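so my prof wants the structure for this chain in the tokens format not the other one, which i didnt know existed until like an hour ago. anyway here's the sequence
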Amino acid sequence: MAGKARHFYPGGNTSVGFYSFFDSVFQGVERKIIFKGGPGTGKSTCFKKIGEQLLRQGLDVEFLHCPSDNDSLDGIIVPALKTGLVDGTSPHTIDPVYPGVVDEIVNLGEFWDRKQLLKFKDEIISLTDQNSACYKEAYGRFALAKEMHSDLEQCYIEGMNFQLADYIAETVIGEIFASAAPTGGKGRERHMFMGAATPEGPRHFYDNLTEGLRTRYIVKGRPGTGKSTLMKKNCPCRAGKRIRCRAVSLCIRSRIRRYGADPQAFRGHPGWHRTP
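here's what i got, hopefully its the right format
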């Protein structure tokens, strides 16, 4: 039987520039293979081929998508093997922390033809500089959009009954964790982006990340009405909870999905996992 594929973004293009959750995503990985090499050297292709082969072998694979290229991957993680492959080049530059014992490097740049590349030297330099300038302009626009969003939030905040909103938040928390009791341990949280601002517009993996869940809560509301606050309150591991549910000791691990425009805000955390 084929393994299960999960898709998400470990980093995002946001109002504060490129924002990375690579460290959080890779927690628990005991072998990390870092791929180096310029654009077009085959990093993403390697990730796709290896990931697809592992799925066919029955292993679950997490596919880490690139927010700046809809057709590219920034890496894969194989939870059962505690192994991950990752693109270690800019803007999410990753270098070995524990060389040889945890981190390894695969440098695809060793296989390019320098003499051939030198024929395109001026073009490569020009395109690289233009690319950087475009990102700088885009991040400036994101920052401006965030300012406007904040102003819009303030308008709705002025008209909100937060006493009632807090009551609803506590009611939802009570409903979700009605059968759970703290046991004194500490949960684990993992941060990532469910969606991202990409060259083809906003994209997300909501359906993939929530498939198989018994219940999915969809929170609606205008900017400033407390959606992110509700989800922060509702995340059990932020309170360091280890729970006992139906007489079985369980630890809740939250996969926290961040909001691309504002990485400090929550977009949601579907997929609480209970593990013995």
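also thought this was worth mentioning. Residues 121-158 form the longest helix (38 residues).
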